[in-house]
Specification:
about 70 residues; mainly alpha; 3 helices; single chain
């Protein structure tokens, strides 16, 4: 396991402490959970972009047409 030191403004640190206390967890655990969410979001976006790059636009439009999608109106 690694140790990470970060610099935060005092007010942000105070707010993180209050959030951690409201969840009844440590600031360390809160930051770990937030990092997990950020990594999961990054991984999902990366997978989506990779799959979208392999996609067939014409086929996607046909599928949306069958579903009755009319775009932003």
């Amino acid at each position: 396991m690694s140790t990470l030191t970060i610099r935060l403004p005092d007010d942000k640190h105070d707010r993180l402490k209050a959030l951690a206390e409201s969840r009844q967890i440590s600031v360390n655990r809160l930051v770990d959970e937030l990092a997990t969410v950020a990594i999961a979001n990054f991984d999902a976006r990366t997978r989506f972009e990779m799959r979208a790059g392999r996609g067939d636009v014409k086929r996607a439009i046909k599928i949306l047409d069958r579903l009755g999608y009319e775009g932003d109106e």
